[in-house]
């Protein structure tokens, strides 16, 4: 396996160093597309190149915004006169506040006028960009379930198999710590990574209904026994050394957590499926030879289906209502179903959400991984959107802070539950 950086995708890499992180295209005569900054953005850079090659009137530019500040930057710029024209988001939960303030352009006419475009997406994924029956988001990336990645060489050296039960998890922790290996890499400096553990624990203990109640607006849902039990399990994991003793200062967005796994200093890593592309880009030999993956194990007596997944069904592009380029922006959205765009996603290790994606997965850098991920999502009884994307920012932001304090021992499980239930 080699890192796929050829053709349009390869040419787009040259743009990474030249795009700005300023917002708003009105002042400089260009249509600005805001992207979350990571190794996957190369596909969107290539799409902008293609759009510019075919557009006589409008020049588009990608502005990459660092991941750790992305949502804060969007919230700030949306209240200013320097809004981007098109911007990356996580779908309905993350853009509802802007819809309620009439800041986004409805896209129903685009879909109605171009049914072939509308039918290019898996319907359930397209629906993730709807709010109150109106379309505001168009899928732009692959599906992103959270998976349990592992370093095959490390587990083999310890005589271990990837955990299939919770007891296996505990045994893996003991075996790793005895050899001075971090059982689970964790980028605690970016506390949204810690959220993934609670999401799966709550789901496995109480099923998807627990968080669904919270997402539907009932803060007392945080007092469900599954939440307290999950918080207690987090503290047990920390006390057992599951994440080492320096996880609070390990950055995910700067690549430190992933490096722990690829360099064999950690055995496993609970992370979104984009972790595969990260290693494909930064440690291709490891991705080819030693990167393994699987599902989060069931819990004894838990009510959640072991096939449930959490994560992000996909990411979306939305168009701001005040853009000077509404027609060009919507034309740019059509790039997301262009055969070159979909093929480059597959080449970059993503599993697209277009209806023709399954036919292309054999061309993925690792067809086995791509098909595994596709089937994992396809067969999941429930796919829970990441908590910090499913909840409004007024709740999601302090929630992530409370999660960080739980992991760092600054609050007890009981205090954690009380604090979340108080969020309004």
In short:
Keywords: Signal. It contains 22 helices and 13 strands.
Notable characteristics:
globular; 13 strands; 2 domains; disordered N terminus; D-Maltodextrin-Binding Protein, domain 2; five-stranded mixed beta sheet; about 15% strand; alpha/beta; about 425 residues; 22 helices; six-stranded mixed beta sheet
List the helices and strands and how they pair.
Layout: H1 7-13, E1 31-37, H2 42-54, E2 60-66, H3 70-78, E3 86-89, H4 92-100, H5 108-113, H6 115-118, H7 123-126, E4 130-131, E5 134-135, E6 138-139, E7 144-151, H8 152-158, H9 166-178, E8 182-185, H10 192-206, H11 209-215, H12 225-240, H13 256-262, E9 266-272, H14 274-282, H15 284-289, E10 291-294, E11 309-312, E12 316-319, H16 326-333, H17 339-347, H18 357-360, H19 367-378, E13 383-385, H20 387-390, H21 393-407, H22 413-421
Parallel strand pairs: 1-2, 1-3, 8-9, 11-13
Antiparallel strand pairs: 3-12, 4-5, 6-12, 7-9, 7-10, 7-11
Helix pairs in contact: 1-2, 10-12, 10-21, 12-22, 21-22
């Amino acid at each position: 396996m080699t890192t796929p950086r050829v053709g349009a995708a390869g040419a787009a890499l040259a743009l990474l160093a030249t795009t700005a992180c300023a917002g708003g295209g009105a002042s400089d005569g260009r249509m600005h597309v805001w992207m979350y900054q990571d190794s996957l953005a190369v596909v969107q850079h290539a799409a902008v190149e293609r759009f510019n090659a075919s557009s006589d009137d409008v020049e588009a530019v990608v502005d990459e915004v660092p991941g750790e500040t992305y949502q804060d930057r969007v919230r700030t710029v949306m209240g200013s006169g320097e809004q981007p024209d098109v911007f990356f988001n996580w779908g309905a939960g993350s853009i509802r506040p802007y819809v309620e303030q009439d800041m986004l352009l409805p896209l129903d006419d685009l879909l109605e006028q171009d049914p072939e475009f509308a039918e290019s997406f898996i319907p359930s994924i397209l629906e993730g960009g709807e709010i109150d029956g109106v379309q505001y988001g168009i899928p732009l990336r692959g599906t992103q379930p959270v998976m349990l990645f592992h370093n095959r060489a490390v587990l083999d050296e310890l005589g271990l198999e990837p955990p299939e039960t919770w007891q296996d998890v505990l045994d893996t922790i003991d075996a790793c710590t005895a050899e001075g290996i971090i059982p689970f890499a964790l980028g605690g400096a970016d506390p949204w990574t810690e959220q993934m553990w609670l999401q799966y624990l709550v789901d496995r203990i109480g099923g998807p209904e627990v968080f669904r109640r919270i997402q539907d607006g009932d803060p007392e849902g945080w007092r469900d026994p599954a939440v307290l039990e999950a918080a207690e399990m987090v503290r047990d994991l920390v006390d057992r050394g599951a994440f080492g003793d320096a996880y609070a200062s390990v950055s995910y967005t700067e690549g430190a957590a992933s490096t722990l796994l690829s360099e064999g200093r950690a055995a496993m890593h609970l992370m979104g499926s984009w972790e595969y592309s990260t290693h494909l880009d930064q440690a291709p030999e490891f991705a080819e030879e030693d990167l393994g993956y699987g599902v989060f194990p069931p819990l004894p007596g838990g009510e959640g289906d072991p096939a449930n997944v959490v994560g992000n069904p996909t990411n979306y592009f939305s168009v701001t209502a005040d853009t000077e380029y509404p027609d060009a922006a919507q034309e740019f959205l059509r790039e997301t179903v262009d055969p070159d765009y979909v093929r480059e996603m597959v080449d970059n290790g993503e599993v697209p959400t277009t209806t023709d994606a399954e036919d292309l997965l054999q061309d993925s850098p690792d067809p086995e991984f791509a098909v595994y991920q596709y089937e994992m999502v396809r067969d999941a009884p429930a796919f829970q959107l990441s908590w910090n994307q499913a909840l409004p920012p007024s709740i999601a932001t302090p929630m992530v802070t409370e999660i960080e304090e739980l992991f760092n021992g600054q609050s007890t499980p009981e205090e954690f539950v009380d604090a979340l239930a108080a969020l309004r």
